[in-house]
């Protein structure tokens, strides 16, 4: 019995140590897991690059969008955004001057298409997100 208790204590200590060291790593990645950190990094609409403000306005108007993939489902595979059912999030391209393709900048919105519940900006192709606030 004492040996089992010692093993449980050692496992609990190891898990706690792993959790404590994981939190700063996740925060430095720009994670917006509200359940773990309690807050989301934000960016004001006025702080977005001009192309981001234009894309945000197109989202609120319902388009038209310049790229075929705009409005497609965003899977949130990395789970950096709050967890929702598949189909909740949609992605939109933010043009990058000088880029020959869609570039790395996107806005991802969750909820109804024209009046989303929340939108997030990423400048690094989904490695980090900041919630857009008015």
TrEMBL record:
Keywords: Hydrolase, Nuclease, Signal. Transmembrane segments: none annotated. It holds the Pfam family Ribonuclease. Residues 1-17 form the signal peptide. Gene3D superfamilies: Microbial ribonucleases. This is Ribonuclease. It comes from Ramlibacter pallidus.
């Amino acid at each position: 019995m004492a040996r089992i208790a010692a093993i449980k204590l050692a496992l609990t200590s190891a898990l706690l140590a792993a959790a404590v060291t994981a939190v700063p790593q996740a925060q430095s990645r720009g994670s917006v897991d509200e359940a773990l950190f309690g807050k989301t990094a934000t960016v004001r609409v006025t702080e977005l690059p001009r192309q981001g403000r234009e894309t945000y306005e197109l989202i609120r108007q319902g388009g038209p969008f310049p790229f075929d993939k705009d409005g497609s489902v965003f899977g949130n595979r990395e789970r950096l955004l709050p967890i929702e059912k598949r189909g909740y999030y949609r992605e939109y391209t933010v043009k990058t001057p000088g880029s020959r393709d869609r570039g790395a900048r996107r806005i991802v919105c969750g909820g109804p298409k024209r009046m989303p519940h929340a939108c997030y900006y990423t400048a690094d192709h989904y490695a980090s997100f900041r919630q857009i606030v008015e």
